Amino acid sequence: YPTILSFIAGLIAYMINPHLADNKYYLISVILIVYWTMTWINLKGLHVSAQFASICTVIGMVIPMILIVLLAAFWILKGNPLQMHLNIHTMFPAIHESESWISLTAIMAAFLGMELATVHVKNIQNPQNIFPKALIFAITFILITMILGSLSIAFVLPKDQINLVDGVMQEFSSFFHVYHLNWLIPVIAVMILIGSLGGMINWMISPAKGLLLAAQDGFLPKFFQKENKHGVANVMLIVQAVLVSLMCLVFLLMPSVNGSYWLLTDLSTELYMMMYFLMFIAAVFLLTHDAVKGAIFQVPFKKVGVWILSVLGILGVIMTFVIGFFPPSDVNVGGFWHYEIIFGSGIVITSLPAGLFYWYKTCHAKEWEIH
User: Fold this and answer.
1) Are 236 and 44 in contact (CB under 8 A)?
2) Which residue of 34, 61, 68, 132 is 20 to 30 Å from 82, comparing CA positions?
3) Distance between CA 31 and CA 326 in Å, rounded?
4) DSSP H or E segment with residue 21
5) Which domains does the chain have, with CATH numbers?
6) Residue 208 and residue 333: Cα distance in Å, rounded?
7) What are 246-296's pLDDT values in tens digits?
8) How far apart are CA 197 and CA 199, in angstroms?
């Protein structure tokens, strides 16, 4: 959450005073205000949050993404200088350079959370047909927009001037300055801000719903099973907000905002890789024990497909996890060992709840069997 919230704070700073994006205390304050406001909206019910997210996505993500690609295309057609040239050497990652491998962490982070939609599958009519199609459409759209959007930024902005927090607004500003459309800068900033809020609200409600289901299965104390009158896991959302508030303190541990942003991105990616590793292992386990017979959703090519996807997934997860321990050289993280200590501690601390949940489930297994 803090990474998305940092981006939101950077956008707000861009509209007020761009230098605020480098102020740790400003970022922490905005993150706390925005997150607790989004928590309040989520407490109003899934219907309200879903409508809010849908409107925000169209206004603040789809339209700006299409616009940034069109502006980049126009920039190229007008013969303006490019900061990156596409050729056989730049189109493929330089596998002999460590920076190319380190960038894999950020790329993987862009696709995290696709599985969160599954917690809402019970709310979908005919999920066997609708859900896979929606997932394929989402993956295709994300791939196209991410690739074209990233290339658009790389073509216009010099590498050393790209800021992880407000790089998107940097490019829009560059375009609008050239075409004397400076009045559009705050408009686009507001649109992207709205889109980010919509994305944020999705990231908040889905994990809370998943944890509610885990609590109902006995992995958490019954206290966490509570729902408000709107059918929302209110206790989960409040606990989640408190934990995110504490995580924001990482901005005080790193020497730069970019360093903090990278640390949070890296840490969340590593945790996800651990979860994905277990998920792929579980898929193989269920397959070998014939536990997938009669399943509602089927992987293409059945057993062969599951094995291929699981092996590829496990290899990708292990590779990303190892690379994640090496910070990029062009981001100020306060030194390699300073980063490793904070990063390693973060992984250990944030991994503890999973072990505690399993221990709780084991200790109370008989109690749940009785009920």
Assistant:
1) no
2) 61
3) 27
4) none
5) 2-370 (1.20.1740.10)
6) 31
7) 888 888 887 877 788 788 888 888 888 888 898 889 888 887 776 556 566
8) 5
Q: Which residue has the tokens 């997934």?
A: 313
- Evaluate if residue 76 carries a pLDDT over 50: yes
- pLDDT value of residue 294: 59
Count of residues in the chain: 371
CB 34 within 8 A of CB 8: yes
User: What are 293-349's pLDDT values in tens digits?
Assistant: 656 667 777 788 888 989 998 998 898 888 888 887 777 778 888 888 888 888 888
Report residue 108 as tokens.
């993987």
Nearest residue to 297 via CA among 60, 130, 117, 101: 130
- Note whether 223 and 234 are within 8 A (CB): no
For the entire predicted model, the pTM comes to: 0.70
Can you tell me the distance from the alpha carbon of 32 to that of 111, in angstroms, rounded to the nearest whole number? 25
Give per-residue burial for 215-230: e unless 16+ CB within 10 Å, then b.
beebbbeeebbeeeee
Distance of CA 60 to the CA centre of its chain: 16
Contact by Cβ (8 Å): 212, 26: no
User: What separation in angstroms does the CA of 157 have from each of 60, 92, 102, 179?
Assistant: 22, 20, 20, 16
Contact 20, 26 (CB under 8 A): yes
**Which residue bears the tokens 């949050």?**
49
DSSP string, 261-297: HHHHHHHHHHHHHHHHHHHHHHHHHHHHTTTTTT-SS
Confidence of residue 370 (pLDDT cuts 50, 70, 90): very low
